Structure to design on (525 residues):
């Protein structure tokens, strides 16, 4: 027991005490979602010596649109085993938002621990078409714009505004994929200079292949524990000292895509700027989005960005956001960081953003 | 405005195609049908046998790795008589859709019941699977042509009341 950090959000210290993720792969052909989740849930409990009976709440994040079947989140509970009956909830969002719901419940004080998990597969359908269905149904969805084309509009807007160049995008990708070489869960990792990357052809101008996230099948799980329970299960818990999430208009055309005011606001509410940040794990599926997020959060050059490689290393839908929180927690457990900022996004061109500040004592 | 009628309706056709992954456990079950066998899986903890298994015991959350071959016989736990025609119907109505609990299984599944007059079908009816000819067997439950009565006395309600 070493005390608790000062909190910006909430009144009860809640720590990330365990985290596990699937081996991110392009296509998991053999296993179904339950079979993918089972070893991950088993690891997240097993690594701290607890079982499903030690958590008072279960919250998951996923979407049936990726799987093409109704109530896949109910079926996924088979991976946990829910007898005797358990308090459980689900969000049609990345697991980072499932964590938010669990954190709120932990604030109320009725429970001391929660399991958060999430899963998503990009391989079962045409991801570009599936993601188009989430857009404004009258003016945008009927055009079927894929996420890369929308992200390319955003990247071009940055170039037009004089905020970044294609070389800046390549520099983000080069650094991220190089950092990913040290991440055993990375799907895409390499050591190539920005100059080499700029020789690639455009996928959708001004975005080249390196600026795009991989298509990933994966899942992740996390255990949260409040107060003394956090120290019971973890030597140095990564306490959530600030957390907030904000959303921007559904209409992509009505936004200034070169900035992320929702991230800025969430970052302020979460107290990002109150103290020095050692590590930032930013959920930027497209390389240029890391630049927008770093500016929105006011991160300076002293902050280590995406040491895991970020979403450019692996981008499992519905999990890549929670994985940013997990990677940040790992940096605190190891002592590599005392204070980390994790960010998760959802929707086209960074429409929805969650910011979570983690601190170790 | 120019006095035009308001737009109250628009068409936005949406179609998404998916490739389903059966998974390791369900693949074993489906391959069983190719050989004319019912293959279930047992939970290592509660010992319940699931057919089909999705790979996990929903009660304990543990992998159901042990394969259990189940017999051709079982009990109708409940049923309904289908009288309503619907698009894509492949069986002549009326027909009986039964919930079949194979002997030794702890999960029932839906099956077609034939060779019994509709007014004689009942809960507890003992049935057996009739498989399609060997050359027609495939990785699908359609390899079972239908279930039919065995002629045994009805099963005791106590033996299947948990599975209703």
């Amino acid at each position: 027991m070493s005390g608790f950090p000062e909190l910006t959000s909430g009144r009860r210290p809640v720590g990330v005490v365990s985290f596990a993720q699937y081996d991110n792969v392009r296509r998991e052909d053999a296993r179904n979602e339950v079979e993918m989740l089972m070893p991950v849930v088993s690891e997240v409990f097993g690594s701290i010596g607890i079982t499903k009976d030690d958590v008072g709440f279960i919250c998951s994040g996923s979407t049936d649109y990726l799987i093409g079947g109704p109530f896949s989140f109910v079926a996924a509970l088979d991976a946990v085993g829910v007898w005797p009956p358990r308090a459980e909830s689900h969000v049609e969002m990345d697991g980072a938002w499932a964590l938010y719901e669990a954190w709120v419940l932990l604030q109320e004080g009725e429970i001391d621990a929660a399991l958060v998990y999430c899963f998503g597969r990009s391989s079962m359908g045409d991801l570009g078409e599936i993601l188009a269905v989430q857009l404004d149904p009258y003016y945008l969805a009927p055009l079927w714009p894929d996420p890369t084309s929308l992200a390319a509009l955003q990247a071009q807007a940055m170039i037009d505004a004089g905020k970044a160049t294609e070389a800046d995008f390549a520099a983000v990708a080069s650094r991220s994929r190089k950092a990913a070489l040290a991440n055993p869960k990375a799907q895409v990792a390499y050591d190539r200079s920005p100059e080499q990357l700029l020789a690639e052809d455009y996928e959708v101008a001004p975005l080249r292949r390196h600026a795009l996230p991989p298509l990933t099948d994966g899942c992740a799980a996390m255990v949260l524990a409040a107060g003394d329970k956090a120290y019971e299960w973890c030597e140095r818990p990564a306490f959530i000292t600030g957390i907030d999430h904000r959303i921007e208009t559904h209409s992509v055309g009505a936004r200034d895509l070169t900035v992320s005011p929702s991230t800025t606001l969430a970052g302020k509410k979460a107290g990002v700027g109150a103290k020095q940040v050692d590590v930032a794990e930013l959920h930027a599926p497209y390389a240029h989005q890391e630049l927008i997020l770093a500016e929105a959060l006011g991160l300076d050059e002293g902050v280590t960005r995406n040491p895991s490689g970020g979403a450019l290393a692996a981008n499992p839908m519905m999990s890549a956001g929670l994985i940013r929180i997990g990677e940040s927690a790992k940096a605190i457990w190891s002592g590599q960081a005392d204070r980390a900022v994790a960010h998760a996004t959802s929707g086209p061109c960074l429409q929805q953003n969650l910011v979570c500040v983690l601190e170790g004592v | 405005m120019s006095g035009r009628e308001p737009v109250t309706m628009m068409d936005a056709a949406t179609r998404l195609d998916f490739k389903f992954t059966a998974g390791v456990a369900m693949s074993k079950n489906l391959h069983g049908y190719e050989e004319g066998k019912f293959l279930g899986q047992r939970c290592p903890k509660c010992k319940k046998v699931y057919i089909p298994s999705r790979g996990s015991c929903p009660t304990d959350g543990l992998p159901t790795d042990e394969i259990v071959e189940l017999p051709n016989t079982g009990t109708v736990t409940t049923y309904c008589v289908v009288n309503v025609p619907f698009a894509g119907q492949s069986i002549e109505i009326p027909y009986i859709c039964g919930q079949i609990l194979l002997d030794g299984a702890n999960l029932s599944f839906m099956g077609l019941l034939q060779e019994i007059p509709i007014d004689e079908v009942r809960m507890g009816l003992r049935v057996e699977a009739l498989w399609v000819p060997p050359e027609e067997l495939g990785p699908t439950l359609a390899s079972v042509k239908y279930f039919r009565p065995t002629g045994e006395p009805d099963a005791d309600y106590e033996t299947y009341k948990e599975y209703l």
Summary: The domain at 127-214+240-359 of chain A is CATH 3.40.47.10 (Peroxisomal Thiolase; Chain A, domain 1).
